[in-house]
Amino acid sequence: MVAVRGPAPTAPIRIVAPGREWGVEPVELLVERGVEKVPSTYRRVSVEEEEELMALNDNSIAAAAEVEEEDRIGSGMDIPLIDLKEWDESHREEIVSKVREACEEWGFFRIVNHGVDVHLMQRMMQVAKEFIGLPIEEKAAYVGRPGMISQGYGSKYTIGAEDAVRDWRDYLFLWLQPEEVRDYAYWPSKPEAFRETMDQYSREVQELARKVLGLMSEGLAQRTGLLEEAIGEPPYQKVLINYYPACPQPQVVDGFHQHSDIGALTMVLQEDEAPVGLQVRYHNHWVPARPLPASFVVNVADQVEILTNGRYKSIEHRVVPNRHRSRLSIPVFYDAAPDVMISPVKELAQIPIYKQVKFDDHEHAFYEYGANGKNMVQSYILSNHPLAQPLSAS
Ligand code: OGA
Ligand code: NI
């Protein structure tokens, strides 16, 4: 943290790049200026609620906060680990059933020996780190144009209510595939290796995503192409470089509020040395998805839940910030094209649970109102289906 003179900030600080009409209010800037108390803009727990919680506890406020942080990290559980070594040879059947079980039970798993060059993963993380490490004035040149689903550097990602609670997160968001959707204006020119690394990373991760979708399809039917075909050609690919600055009061904010991912499949690269940040809902627990070098965390997203008629689960997850250090993660999203209609695949759904939804509408709703658990997917449950009663069951 940079030593600064002057009072600690109590509200977001806006910066505007020269020649731009729009700005950004990075969380990072609050931290750099020595924020001591989380501004109300980011608070999920009100001061009153926090005080009530503290009053219930005999310990000092600091100790209570630490206990709560521990609780949020959950017990000794872990998401399934799947080794993809020899995935196309002798171990295929075994791997397919592990993938199926993980998608049905957890919606999340970790993969190792996945075929993506580990050095490329390290270079990707390194260039992301270098970009995030640039002075804010330089990053501000990549601030996304305000509006729906805007690419670029930012912090507040929703366009809905101005007073919606924000996440303790800054990011760079880019569309990667098909190549004609790329907007290179938002691709950093610093560090120098950023563009080339991102380009290569995009191709290798897309290839892996297809393989994993193939294994997931095989777990449901005898056909490798089932899910890929339903998602359609060309699939879209997007990337987030998520930066979660250290937070003086991690117990009152979210790094990323609980949500399920909207696309088909997500593959997350986490910073190896970072503390636990990502947590996955497993029944009533939040299970940490700890960083593991050379692995990807893979998760089923909403489109696959709908296509498989709920057999594969798009599970809620969230990110908690850490009091002492920042964390970087790089999720890559495999999505349908905007005009693709998503509905349960006939051969998997004798009685469909979900109505048909156009991916574009689903995506817009997410960026308008922000992440809120699984409320969007629940709203697609057909009203005559037993699961629709009651709608709020989670
Ligand atoms: C996301 C997400 C997890 C993380 O971007 O959808 O859940 O660890 N990210 O940043
Ligand atoms: Ni997510």
State the main characteristics.
394 residues, alpha+beta, 4-stranded antiparallel β-sheet, 29% helix, binds N-oxalylglycine, binds nickel (II) ion
Short description:
The chain has 394 residues and is α+β, with helices and mostly antiparallel strands. Helices cover 29% and strands 18% of the residues. Residues 240, 242, 256, 261, 268, 277-278, 317, 319, 329, 331 line the site of N-oxalylglycine.
Q: What features would you describe in this structure?
A:
This protein has 394 residues and is α+β, with helices and mostly antiparallel strands. 29% of the residues lie in helices and 18% in strands. It is built from eleven helices and 16 strands. The chain has helices at residues 27-32, 47-55, 61-73, 92-105, 118-132, 136-139, 194-218, 226-231, 302-307, 359-369, 375-379; strands at 15-16, 23-24, 81-83, 108-112, 152-154, 170-177, 236-244, 256-259, 265-270, 278-282, 285-288, 296-300, 317-319, 327-335, 341-342, 357-358. An eight-stranded mixed beta sheet has the order 3-4-12-9-14-7-6-5. A four-stranded antiparallel beta sheet has the order 8-13-10-11, with no helix packed on it. The chain starts with 14 loop residues before the first strand and ends in a 15-residue tail after the last helix. The structure holds N-oxalylglycine and nickel (II) ion. N-oxalylglycine binds next to strand 7, strand 13 and strand 14.
